[in-house]
Design goal:
The protein is mainly α and about 210 residues long. The protein is built from six helices and no strands.
């Protein structure tokens, strides 16, 4: 069956209807808000305490010395690092249940942990850890490495940073440096006392 022929009037009406539909569609699109970007994810601050950059550099230098030229790792381990443990583990392990910074406060409550480490490095027999013998560890400034005072402070900073809470600050390094002469003086006095001849026994006296 043939389709009915459109008259000009019908074509105009259909054209106007199509234009009206397009206009309504465009208006509806204008009411739709543009897509929004998802909110940016907040950047979280790193966990844990923030270490002063200068102190962090000193600790890193001390770590390199500890495992290299100073040869501390020939006798001491730090946790699982190091092959020998003729001396106490300076981290946790080999019978040590607390890190060095915690143990130092118990052994020298009147000093900072880093000061205790400096004393132990320069005057090893000042405090002898239980189960270890005196006279075994040599003073670090008498070893072939012959560390400077600054290098001694760096190694002490690395050791004292094990379990340090709060972390080390620049003034701790200054106090460690100031401790060096006192530790050397105490070592000299200890050696002098050990080498002094024993006093002669008193001559017996007759009772009157």
């Amino acid at each position: 069956m043939a389709e009915p022929r459109l008259t000009p009037a019908t074509s105009r009406r259909r054209g106007r209807a199509a234009c009206l539909a397009l206009a309504l569609l465009a208006s509806a699109c204008d009411d739709v808000p543009p897509p929004t970007k998802p909110p940016a994810r907040a950047v979280e601050a790193p966990a844990g305490p923030v270490v002063d950059p200068a102190v962090a550099h000193t600790i890193a230098s001390g770590e390199r010395l500890f495992f290299d030229r100073a040869a501390c790792s020939a006798c001491h381990r730090v946790g699982e690092r190091g092959a020998m443990y003729n001396g106490p583990n300076l981290g946790v392990g080999d019978g040590m249940t607390e890190p060095l910074a915690v143990r130092a406060r118990l052994r020298r409550p009147d000093a900072l942990p880093i000061e205790y480490v400096v004393e132990s490095m320069l005057d090893p027999d000042a405090i002898v850890v239980p189960t270890f013998a005196p006279g075994v560890m040599k003073a670090i400034d008498e070893l072939p490495s012959q560390l400077s005072d600054g290098e001694i402070v760096a190694v002490a900073a690395f050791v004292a940073s094990q379990g340090a809470d709060p972390p080390l600050v620049p003034s701790d390094l200054e106090r460690a440096k100031a401790r060096i002469p006192a530790a050397r003086a105490a070592r000299a006095a200890r050696r002098a006392a050990a080498q002094a001849p024993a006093p002669a026994p008193a001559a017996p006296t007759k009772a009157l």
